[in-house]
Each structure stands twice: as C-alpha cells, then as structure tokens.
Specification:
GO molecular function: 3-methylbutanoyl-CoA dehydrogenase activity; flavin adenine dinucleotide binding
CATH class of the largest domain: Mainly Alpha
CATH superfamily of the largest domain: Butyryl-CoA Dehydrogenase, subunit A, domain 3
CATH topology of the largest domain: Butyryl-CoA Dehydrogenase, subunit A, domain 3
Distance between the termini: 28 Å
Organism: Amycolatopsis thermoflava
Pfam family, one: Acyl-CoA_dh_2
Strand content: 5-15%
Order of helices and strands: HHHHHHHEEEEEEEEEHHHHH
Number of helices: 12
Structural class: alpha+beta
Shape: globular
Keywords: Flavoprotein, Oxidoreductase
Helix content: 40-55%
Protein name: Alkylation response protein AidB-like acyl-CoA dehydrogenase
Length: 391
C-alpha cells in the first residue's frame, strides 16, 4: 500500500500547483485524467497478469483520499472509475469479469457511468440478439473524459434492470456541457442522451441465457460507492485543514487588541484552540473511515458466493456512520478555517472556499439524515439496512 500512496501523493502534488485556477476555469480535465493514467492509478485494481496493480480496495480508498486532498473533483472521478471498473465483478458472470478486466487494464481505459437511480431509467428494447438502450440521464460523471461508460436500464415489458459496459465515444452517446454547479466542477457530471446504443445479450451483466443470476454480492455496489464518497470527502477535509494551516503559518497576523498579545498567529491562543479542535475531529473521522475500509475490502475480494446478508448489512451500517461523521466534520472545517486564517484569506486567489463548495455539493447526493437513521435503527433495534439503490 505504501508505494501506491506515495505514487498518489506525487500526482496530488502536481494537481495542487494549479488547483485553484483549474477550479475557476472549469475546463474538461483531459490532462488530469491522463496524469492518473500515466502514473498507473487507473489500473490499480486491475489484474496483475494484464499489467494492473492487483491491489485491494483498502488501498484504492486511500489513493482516492490522497488525490482528493489536492483536487476533490479528480478524487471523485478516480473513485467513480474504481467503482465502475469493479461493476463486472459486482453483477457480471465469470466470463464477463475476465473480459472487462482484461479490456480496461490492458488499454488503460477510464470509466464513467450513467446510472443515476433518481432519473427515469433508460428504456431497453430487444432486437434479435441485441439489447438497444434509449433515454436521457441528468448525471453522467466522467462523461467526456471516459473511455467506457456503464449503462443501466429496464427491459421493456419487464421490471428487469440490465447493466452493460459500452464505449463512450460512439454516435449514440451524446454528453451535454451542462454541469455548472458550485462545487466538484471538474467531474464532468452533466447530462447524457442515449440513442440506439446496441449491446449483445451476451454482454448483459450477470445474465445467462437471458436470465439474471442473483447474488448477495450484487448488493455491495451501494456500500462500496458510499465509501468512495466518504473517502474523497475525507480527502477534501484534509486538504482544507492542511491548506489553512499553511496559510496561517505564512500569512495570518496575530490579533493585537485582546490583552494577551502574541508576536505570531501561530502562538495565538484561539487559533491553537481552533485548530486543535478541528484536527482532533478529523483524526477521529479518519480512524472511522479507515475501519470501514478495512471491513469492506476483504468482502469485496472474497469469493462472491460467500457473502451473507448479515455481513453486508454490518459493513453498510459502519460506512453510513463514517459518512455522516466526515460530512459533519468536513463542513465544519470548510467554514471554521476562515475564522482561523483571517479576513484576507477570503481572497479568491487563495481558493480556500473550494473545499467547502466541493464537499457541500457532493454531500447532497443523498440525504444524510437517512444515514443517521440507519445507524440509529441498528444501534437501538438491531436492524440491518435493507439493500436499495442508496443503502
């Protein structure tokens, strides 16, 4: 793991140089994704026999976090890529897993996904031995920087959801330049129109003879990506605190009207107290996030048939707890740092606002009170969350 974290930190150092300017410019991050590819981070989870890193999810989560410290958008892109690169393992057959992992690993391909469950599902029709996808999705993270896109839709006349992995660059997929939110600005999360995208029935993930083969393991998709969120939230919060500390060391002035005057802001009592409180809370959140990563990684890498509903539920509760803790802590850090750095730190050239904007934007993905309820129901009643699109 250590070597991969060091590699991620090298990439993060390059991203940090112009992170503020790139956030403001809001350009498609082709160069940033290429940087991830050039350093082998895109194929970190790929099989070693195909040139991949052969690493675990525990390592992948730590790498996401390191990238997000420098640039929350790129951390999100990488985290979503890891989830979608694992999609074949989550729902596919053994043959599909082998084919997809060889394809993306050998070619260093980057994944995007058009699978937002709050939208109307894409419609799927049959045409002989092919499935045909049609529709519109409001969000397609990774869109124009992706090589492969995960699609999900409902087969006409049924309630069957079918996932498929298709090339992103084709006439039937049109990505729209309409992502213009206050945070996570470089995630290419705009809408997409899908028209006559054809997939052989043999590529319908998890289907054998046109029948889906269910496993409890299929339901790990939500806890896995919820912990992706949690880790890039943690990275954003860590980046915010580190940036604020550096600013205070270099620029913040002591307050000369308090009756306990200090020569440097680094000796100012309220500054020390403020940073001490934030650092303690962040360390606590980090410990919980690491615990969640250590819990889910063995499940993701074990034989898929071995996963029980109880094991899945236990790790989902732990991830829900970690997510609520880092969202609360991260948002507090994103606001409080301005009280500790001083008025001049609010200048746009420093970009300290981007951390709060990034975390605030993505933490609205699904309502945090539902995560608190899941944990409370488990603590009080011993009930595990039922698998859904968001639990």
């Amino acid at each position: 793991m250590t070597d991969w974290i060091a590699r991620a930190r090298e990439v993060a150092a390059q991203l940090a140089v112009d992170a503020v300017e790139r956030d403001r410019a809001n350009n498609t991050p082709y160069a940033e994704v290429q940087l991830l590819k050039d350093h082998g981070l895109v194929t970190l989870l790929g099989p070693a026999e195909h040139g991949g890193g052969g690493q675990t999810w525990e390592t992948a989560y730590r790498v996401i976090r390191e990238i997000a410290k420098a640039d929350g958008s790129i951390g999100q892109l990488l985290g979503y890529h890891y989830l979608w690169a694992w999609a074949a393992r989550l729902v596919g057959t053994d043959a599909q897993i082998a084919a997809v992992e060889e394809l993306y690993t050998k070619n260093n391909f980057f994944f995007g996904g058009a699978v937002n469950p709050r939208d109307s599902d894409l419609k799927i029709t049959q045409d002989g031995d092919e499935l045909v996808y049609h529709g519109h999705k409001s969000f397609s993270t990774g869109s124009k920087v992706s090589d492969l896109t995960v699609l999900e839709g409902v087969l006409e006349g049924t309630d069957e959801h079918i996932f498929a992995i298709v090339p992103s660059k084709q006439p039937g997929i049109v990505f729209h330049d309409d992502w213009d939110n206050i945070g996570q600005r470089l995630t290419e999360s705009g809408s997409v129109t899908i028209s006559d995208v054809r997939v052989p029935w043999s590529d319908a993930a998890g289907y054998v003879d046109r029948k889906f083969q269910p496993l409890v393991y299929n339901t790990l998709n939500v806890p896995t990506i919820q912990l992706v969120f949690t880790n890039f939230y943690l990275g954003i919060a860590q980046g915010a605190l580190e940036s604020a500390l550096a600013y205070t060391r270099e620029r913040t002035r002591a307050w000369p009207y308090g009756g306990d005057d200090k020569a440097s802001a680094t000796e100012e009592w309220y500054v020390l107290e403020g940073y001490g409180d934030l650092q303690a809370k962040l360390w606590a959140a980090e410990a919980l996030v690491d615990r969640a990563g250590a819990a889910i990684s063995p499940l993701l890498h074990a034989r898929r048939e071995e996963l029980t509903p109880e094991a899945r539920g236990e790790v989902a509760v732990l991830i829900a707890a970690a997510k609520q803790r880092i969202v609360d802590t991260g948002l507090e850090i994103g606001t409080k740092i301005f009280e500790l750095t001083g008025a001049r730190a609010s200048a746009t050239k420093y970009g300290l606002d981007r951390f709060w904007r990034n975390l605030r934007t993505h933490s609205l993905h699904d309502p945090l009170p539902y995560k608190r309820r899941e944990v409370g129901d488990y603590a009080l009643n011993g009930r595990l969350p039922e698998p859904s699109w968001y639990t």
